[in-house]
């Protein structure tokens, strides 16, 4: 996976957290490329998704930080990532604000 720099921020409203990412590289196209949902049991979500009629873009895996994740593509072509927020190696910038 290529290296890139980005800025991350969270917006919290009515119990929902939205992660916003800005790529530092101007050659990366602007627009919604993917969204990420923080879920407590990514292997369970991956298992449930594998039994549905969805396009799996990235099967269940662990990234370089040891975080479980999986990705699917929605009917509009947007990639939806499911990431485990409870892992001790999750960078603080990726953690939603504490309530």
Structure, explained:
By secondary structure, this protein is mainly beta. The chain has a domain at 33-99: Signal recognition particle alu RNA binding heterodimer, srp9/1, CATH 3.30.720.110. 9% of the residues lie in helices and 40% in strands. The protein has one helix and six strands; from the N terminus they run βββαβββ. It has one helix at residues 42-50, and strands at 6-13, 16-23, 34-38, 55-62, 68-73, 79-83. The strands form two sheets. It has a four-stranded mixed beta sheet with strand order 3-6-5-4. It has a two-stranded antiparallel ribbon with strand order 1-2. β4 (55-62) and β5 form a beta hairpin. The radius of gyration is 14 Å and the shape is globular. The termini are far apart.
CATH fold topology of the domain at 33-99: Signal recognition particle alu RNA binding heterodimer, srp9/1
Strand fraction equals 35-45%
Which regions are unreliable across 5 or more consecutive residues at pLDDT < 50?
A: none
Quaternary arrangement of the chains shown?
Answer: single chain
| Mean of residue pLDDT values | 79
Q: What is the count of DSSP helices, taking H or I runs of 4+ residues?
A: 1
Cα separation of the termini: 33 Å
Q: Please describe the biggest sheet, giving its number of strands, its sense, and whether it closes into a barrel.
A: 4 strands, mixed
Q: How would you write the strand order of the largest sheet? A: 3-6-5-4
- Find the count of extended strands (DSSP E, 2+ residues): 6
CATH architecture of the domain at 33-99: 2-Layer Sandwich
The secondary-structure element order is EEEHEEE
Helix/strand class: mainly beta
Shape: globular
């Amino acid at each position: 996976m290529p290296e890139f720099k980005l800025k991350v921020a969270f917006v919290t409203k009515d119990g929902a957290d939205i992660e916003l990412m800005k790529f530092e590289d101007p050659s990366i196209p602007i627009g919604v490329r993917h969204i990420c949902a923080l879920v407590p049991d990514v292997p369970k979500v991956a298992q449930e998704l594998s039994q549905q009629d969805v396009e799996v873009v990235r099967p269940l895996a662990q990234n370089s930080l040891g975080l479980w994740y999986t990705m699917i593509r929605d009917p509009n072509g947007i990639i939806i990532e499911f990431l485990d927020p409870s892992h001790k190696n999750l960078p603080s910038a990726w953690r939603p604000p504490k309530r």
